[in-house]
Design a protein that fits this description.
The chain is about 70% helix and about 0% strand. Helix 5 crosses helix 7. The chain starts with a strand and ends in a 10-residue tail after the last helix.
Length: about 500
């Protein structure tokens, strides 16, 4: 099985196949497997309460985010994955369009943002699991020590499953996606019954929508909406592990995209009609709605059942992002901009085990750091907004790269694209870039859900810079090492100093 990478440090270089000695991954994901994988990555019901807390205007945010960000993202992913379907996806596209440095920054941000994002998902799993035991265990979710300890155990377990291979990790993602569908179905059923009995907790009126939009700080949640619509590119990141990627990725992206917007809208509406917006908790908001409805209907057994389903959804989301993000340092390691160990695969399971372990270690370290000096609520919000910033930077490169590549077909030699008209790509690239840039700016604005604004700002800014500055330094160091290594003739041994 062949892999490809873009060689050289100039933009416009065509991907070249790696040698037979390069690490080889296995093509294990077909259409259904990739579809469930993408749904598991895209649909994070756990973050619905963060958006739903703004009131009925949340529904408009999901729609605007879908039109202005998700659709352009889909166009970019389908077009670029058809042209360049190899392992690395968004990293290779950025590198191809703008050169090695920008490709590295894009890939670095894509990888390291998951150091923040994975812990938020693990916090969700633990927080929801605390509801399974009822009032006896529910208070555990307010303890940073408990949340951090159990999250670390789950992180090790999910990492181990992905080291065993996608054929095992995919089961976690399939179960997670299935949990999202079942949970949403139960939520809307309970919500409609509750609304029929007592009326809607948040009536959807023009006054209720515009009164919320009048507070400009509410716009910061647009960045959260954009974050929840990211993930379609994960299929391309694992291009060498997908069967017939040029056909499979567009089909899976279409089905997963439609499923995502429907699930988010239905879940948000279900929460809105069940719980007053001001009372929706950012972590356990969905279970709040379930508790209200099940208590009213005398169906207490549904609460732990939903808690289990929500935990499974978060586990699938965690597994998908952990697996996908780890492929980026794997490819960068092959390109020698990270230590060569990152480009190794497990001799038995044929998986990038070094990258997976490194991802898990970094996330575990951040879990420990985040648990110091913060409440569980603010710890989550800081993690979330820092994740947004780093996650959206690669999208800026992707949307700009889409325009650059389509404008210069002779310079960027590739297979035929998906869209015959370049205008489609130009419009998608422009809209996507502007909305993404706005999302990055708004991520620095603390929303009304943040208790300590100064602590939020300080940790968000320092957290972002602490990952960008080392990236620049590391790239310069590894670039120099690459140049020196390339100057030494093959077969010549260099004596140590």
């Amino acid at each position: 099985m062949s892999h490809s990478r873009i060689v050289g440090d100039q933009p416009g270089r065509t991907p070249e196949p790696l040698s037979d000695n390069a690490p080889h991954l296995q093509r294990v994901l077909g259409f259904s497997g990739l579809t469930f994988f993408l749904i598991a990555a895209l649909v994070n019901l756990n973050s619905v309460p963060v958006v739903a807390g703004m009131g009925p205007a949340a529904l408009l945010f999901w729609v605007f985010g879908f039109i202005l960000f998700f659709i352009p993202q889909g166009i970019a992913v389908i077009e670029l994955s058809r042209r360049f379907p190899g392992e690395g996806g968004i990293y290779n596209w950025s590198k191809l369009a703008f050169g090695d440095f920008h490709g590295f920054i894009s890939g670095w941000c894509y990888w390291t943002n998951n150091i923040f994002y994975v812990p938020t998902l693990l916090f969700y799993i633990v927080g929801f699991a605390a509801f399974i035991g009822g009032d006896t265990t529910r208070g555990w979710g307010e303890s940073p020590l408990f949340m951090a300890s159990i999250s670390l155990v789950l992180l090790c377990l999910i990492t181990w499953l992905n080291i065993l291979g996608l054929k095992f990790g995919a089961w976690v993602q399939t179960i997670g996606a299935t949990g999202a569908f079942i949970t949403t179905g139960i939520l809307i059923t309970l919500g409609m019954i509750a609304a029929g009995r007592h009326g809607e907790a948040n009536p959807l009126t023009s006054a209720s929508v515009f009164s919320v939009l009048a507070d400009w700080r509410t716009l910061s949640l647009l960045s959260v909406v954009c974050l929840n619509y990211t993930g379609l590119e994960l299929g391309s990141v694992m291009g060498d592990e997908i069967k017939e990627p040029r056909k499979t990725i567009p089909r899976a992206a279409l089905v997963a995209g439609i499923s995502t917007v429907v699930l988010y809208l239905v879940a948000t509406y279900s929460l809105q009609i069940s719980v007053p917006a001001a009372q929706i908790g950012v972590i356990d908001g969905i279970l709040q709605a379930v508790k209200v409805s099940t208590t009213d209907l005398n169906l207490p057994f549904l609460l732990p059942a939903i808690a289990i389903l929500m935990s499974l959804n978060a586990a699938g989301n965690t597994s998908a992002w952990l697996a996908g993000a780890a492929r980026i340092p794997f490819v960068i390691g092959i390109d020698r901009y990270l230590p060569a160990a990152f480009g190794r695969i497990h001799p038995k399971y044929q998986t990038p085990h070094v990258s997976l372990v490194a991802q898990a270690f970094a996330s575990g370290l951040f879990i420990v750091i985040s648990a110091v000096g913060a409440t569980v609520h603010d710890m989550y919000m800081i993690l979330l907004q820092t994740t947004v910033i780093l996650q959206l930077i690669p999208y800026l490169y992707m949307f700009a790269g889409l325009i650059v590549i389509r404008r210069n077909p002779q310079r960027f030699r590739s297979a035929d694209g998906f869209f015959s008209s370049p205008l489609v790509c130009y419009v998608a690239g422009a809209f996507g870039f502007v909305v993404t840039a706005l999302g990055v700016v708004l991520a620095f604005v603390p929303s009304n859900a943040v208790n300590d604004a100064w602590n939020f700002e300080l940790k968000t800014v320092l957290g972002t810079l602490s990952f960008l500055i080392p990236a620049v330094i590391l790239f310069r160091v590894k670039s120099r090492q690459r140049r020196l290594a390339d100057m030494i003739p093959q077969g010549v041994e260099v004596a140590p100093d």
